[in-house]
Amino acid sequence: MSEHKLQEALDTLKGSNVRITPQRHAVLEYLINAMIHPTADDIYKALEGKFPNMSVATVYNNLRVFKEIGLVRELTYGDSSSRFDFNTTEHYHVICDHCGKIVDFHYPSLDEVESLAEQVTGFEVRNHRMEVYGTCSDCKTSH
Ligand SMILES: [Zn+2]
Ligand SMILES: [Zn+2]
C-alpha cells in the first residue's frame, strides 16, 4: 500500500522534472509511513543517522519542493514549527490539546463553506482548513 504511494509520489517528482536524490527519496518515504504529521525537525532526527551530511535546512528545502508540486501539505501553527502532511486525499484533523498529536479523519469536503464565503465576502476562495480539538485516547486514560 505505502509502496504504491511511494511509487506514485516518485512518478509525480519525475513528471515535474524534480531530481530524485537519495535524501528526497528518504524524506518522502518517511512522510508516507509516518502518520504523525512530522515537523522538519522530526524528519531530520529520524534520518540524520542515514545522511550525516544532511541539515534541517536541507529537509526544509526538500519539503518546499514537495509542497510546490502538491505532494505535501504544510500545516502552520502560529510561531511553533510547521507540520507536514503527505497529501493523499482530502481530510481533516483532530488535535490533542495535551500532547499535540494530530489524527486524520475523513468527512465529506465542506465545499459549501467555500462558496458561501465567496458569496458573502466577494473573495476568490482558495481552500479551507478545519480542525477539531480535544483529548486523545492515550491522554484520556493517563489523566
Ligand atoms: Zn494526547
Ligand atoms: Zn493529515
Automatic annotation (TrEMBL):
Q: Which UniProt keywords apply?
A: Cytoplasm, DNA-binding, Iron, Manganese, Metal-binding, Repressor, Transcription, Transcription regulation, Zinc
Please name the GO terms that the record assigns under molecular function: DNA-binding transcription factor activity; transcription cis-regulatory region binding; zinc ion binding
Record GO cellular component, one term: cytoplasm
Please give the cofactor(s) recorded in the UniProt entry for this protein.
Answer: Zn(2+); Mn(2+); Fe(2+)
Q: Where does Fe cation bind?
A: 128
Output the Gene3D superfamilies linked to this UniProt entry: 3.30.1490.190, Winged helix-like DNA-binding domain superfamily/Winged helix DNA-binding domain
**In this record, what's one Pfam family?**
FUR
Keyword Transcription regulation belongs to the record: yes
Chain residues that bind Zn(2+): 96, 99, 136, 139
The note on cofactor binding and number reads: Binds 1 zinc ion per subunit.
Among InterPro entries, the record links this protein to: FUR, Fur_C, WH-like_DNA-bd_sf, WH_DNA-bd_sf
Please, which domain of life does this record's source organism belong to?
Bacteria
Q: Does the record carry Lyase as a key word?
A: no
Give the main location: cytoplasm
Family from the record:
Belongs to the Fur family.
Protein's name in the database:
Fur family transcriptional regulator
